[in-house]
Every structure is written in C-alpha cells, then in structure tokens.
Design a protein that fits this description.
The protein is of the alpha/beta class and 403 residues long. It has helices at residues 5-11, 31-44, 68-78, 98-108, 125-131, 145-156, 161-171, 184-205, 212-224, 232-241, 248-260, 289-296, 303-317, 354-365, 394-399; strands spanning 20-24, 52-56, 85-90, 111-117, 135-139, 264-271, 276-286, 321-327, 330-338, 341-347, 373-377, 390-393. A hairpin with a 2-residue loop joins strand 8 and strand 9 (330-338). 37% of the residues are buried.
Length: 403
C-alpha cells in the first residue's frame, strides 16, 4: 500500500482529539485506503485490534447496519470496557439518520471517530445541527501529479519524465488506473464504470432524479463547457434552442446533485477591485479529467480547458479557496487564497504568439498588488518571466513546494 502523506499528515494531529474526522471525496479517490492508513497508524501507537471498530457500509457483511439504531446497537455491543475505542466508518451516508448515531456515540462512549462519505452534503445543515463545532473535514482527491509519479515508480519503475505528464493528462488520477498497466481503452472503461456508479448511487438514487435523460444532457453540457463561465440560465437557453423547455430550478437542482457527488466543483467569480464575490456566471470544473474522456472520448481541442482543470485541482489539494478573478473587463483564471496568502494563476496551452503572451501576462500585470502571479503553460523551454510575473511549465507548477 502506498502512503498518501498529504492526507495522513492532516489527520494525525487530530488523533485522540474530540473532533470527528470527516473524510470526503468522490468514489474511488482513495478514502478507504486513508482509513486503512489511519488504522495502521493507530496500531503503531499500541492501540489493539479490539479497540478498532472498522465498518465498510458498502460491504454486504454490514447490510443490516444501514439504520442508525442498528448501527448504535452493533457498536454498543463491541465496546466492552472503559478503554478508548476507535470507530472507522466507511461510506457513512449509506446509513439512514447516521448523524444521530454519531452524536450518540460521542455522548455515550469514550470514542475517537473517523467517517468517510462520497457526498459533499455530509456537511449539510443536518450534520451541523447535531455536531456543530465538533468535526473537521479532510477532503480526498484523485491522485496529484506527484502522487501519480510515486504510483508509476512503485508499480512500474517508470521514470520516463518526458512522457509521464502526457500519461497523467490522458489517464487522469483515479488510483486504480495507476496500479495496473491498462490500455487507454480499458482505462476509460474502468473510469466509465466508476462514473456510472456515482451517477446512479450518488445522484439519481440519492436525489430521487426521475428525468435521467435530462440529467445526462446537463452533464454533457457541463463537460463541454468546463472552464467556461455559465449558469443554469445558459443551460435552459441551450435547451430552448433545441426546442425543449426545461425549468431553471430543475437545472440548478441537477447541478447541485452533481456537486454533491463530487462530479463537479462550482467556482464563483471574485471582483478584485470591489473585493466581493459575484453571484453570476460561475465556472464548473470536474473532479478528474479522465471522466470527460470516459464519457466523451479524448479531445485535443479541449487541451487548454483540461490543463486549467488540472491546475484547479492542484490548488484544491493544497487547501486554497479558489475564485475566478474579474478585473474590469479582464478575467483572471484563478484567484487562490489560503489564510493570509494569495496567488494569481493564468493557464494557457502555449504562448504561441505575441497576442497570447500579452493577454496572459497583461491580465496579471494589471493587478496592482504584490501577491505572487504565475502563467502556467506547456511551453517547456519558454522560461522567461515578465515584470515579476513568473512563467512555469505545468509540471514545475504541479511539483512546486513554494506555492
């Protein structure tokens, strides 16, 4: 098993602390592996196997525990003394009214709780009501480029750096894809099966969606417009042009369901001058670029948007709050903030003309502050910076320790 220190290092400081550790992320991103790594860490700390109650609610072995009362009774019978027990509960959203069970464990027993879930609405108002101020969220994403390199080296002893980024670009970051030597066709079939499971279980069933064909059309529209500003109204106007009337609230509900299942991430626009978040014309990015390929085939014409998506995910992994920047009539791809830090990032495929160079660097030079500014491209040998705006080849950006 390959360690994923990014996540373990975030969780370890909270071991034996009173907060519930909520590990969230899209299915097959590696949440169960993170739980297993937590278990190994606990055993290193001399916690006995008996003190660790590990349940995966997707296993048929625990199919009778999908009601809060049954789960409570099961755990109660496992706790046989006054020692601290460690609850590792995988895919907790499969348990009806699970929040009440978790709250009762905190009240009734000496426990340290770790839960995973494949729905971003785990941290909705219900959880906040029962567990206000008593949880910490650790989002898990598909493999970063650095993690991908580690997987390739571990499983295939592959150090061919010239081709590795292209491989990452085409295969995406689902861990399972990089533990076996799949062909492109077979890799996309695996990803399509993951995607289909997510759509069925985490959107159609969870949100009781009846118009599945409409949902599929919304997904296709969103995927084709990754990295472009649009709104629910844009989609309804599109359907209107196809002579199909669709309620705008239905579109927003579908987009919300796709966000809930971690298929899509919504990014708001930020007025850099006015210092306010705008409520219109958001952008959407996908949780892993391989999902686009699995559904629609690999598309060279989308390379700029795909690179932008990869940079977005890297900023998410690093804990930034991310916005699309607006400066008068100029757009900045990303305004990324973390505590008192801020960076600005423009992403382009290649700086092939003076016009492109002027646009990408000029947009950043128009910002009148001293925060770091980057232009990220696939120009491997074009290394110049302009007036303090740094140019980085995309892999240099993805592996940088200074961001």
């Amino acid at each position: 098993m390959i360690l994923r220190p990014t996540y373990i290092n975030k969780i370890v400081p909270f071991i034996d602390k009173p907060q519930i550790k909520v590990i969230t992320g899209i299915r097959r991103s590696g949440k169960s592996v993170v739980l297993q790594l937590i278990k190994e860490e606990l055993i290193k700390r001399k916690v006995t196997e008996q003190q660790i109650i590990n349940i995966n609610f997707e296993s048929f072995n625990y199919s009778e525990l999908t009601q809060a009362r049954n789960l409570y009774e099961y755990v109660k019978n496992k706790i046989i003394d006054k020692q601290k027990y460690y609850l590792l509960l995988d895919e907790i959203q499969e348990v009806a009214m699970w929040e009440k069970a978790i709250n009762s464990f905190m009240v009734d027993f000496n426990v340290d709780i770790y839960i995973t879930g494949s729905n971003s609405h785990l941290l909705s108002s219900d959880l906040a009501t029962y567990l206000a101020g008593r949880y910490v969220e650790i989002p898990v994403y598909t493999l970063s480029y650095l993690e991908f390199l580690e997987f390739r080296n571990h499983y295939f002893n592959d150090n061919d750096s010239a081709n590795l980024f292209v491989h990452y670009l085409r295969f995406g970051g689902f861990p399972v894809i990089h533990t076996n030597n799949y062909t492109v066709e077979n890799a996309y079939k695996v990803v399509y099966d993951i995607y289909s499971s997510i759509i069925l279980r985490d959107t159609i069933q969870r949100y009781k969606i009846r118009e599945v064909e409409l949902l599929e059309r919304v997904i296709k529209y969103a995927f084709e417009n990754i990295g472009k500003t649009f709104s629910g109204k844009n989609i309804t106007d599109y359907f209107k042009s196809q002579h199909r009337k669709v309620d705008i609230n239905t579109i927003y509900n579908y987009l919300k369901a796709l966000e809930g299942a971690f298929i899509l991430f919504r990014v708001s626009r930020y007025d850099i001058k006015g210092k306010e978040i705008l409520k219109t014309q958001e952008k959407f990015y996908i949780s892993d670029v391989s999902i686009i390929y699995a559904l629609m085939g690999y598309r060279d014409r989308m390379i700029s948007e795909i690179l932008e998506n990869i940079v977005f995910l890297e900023l998410k992994r690093r804990g930034y709050n991310i916005y699309v920047g607006k400066l008068d009539n100029v757009e900045i791809d990303f305004v990324a903030e973390k505590q008192n830090e801020r960076i600005y990032v423009q992403v382009a495929y290649k700086l092939e003309s003076e016009q492109t160079i002027k646009r990408e660097f000029g947009n950043l030079l128009a910002i009148n502050d001293q925060y770091p500014k980057y232009v990220v491209t696939m120009d491997e040998f074009w290394k110049d910076s302009i007036d303090g705006v740094k140019h980085l080849y995309i892999t240099d950006f993805l592996v940088s320790n200074s961001l």
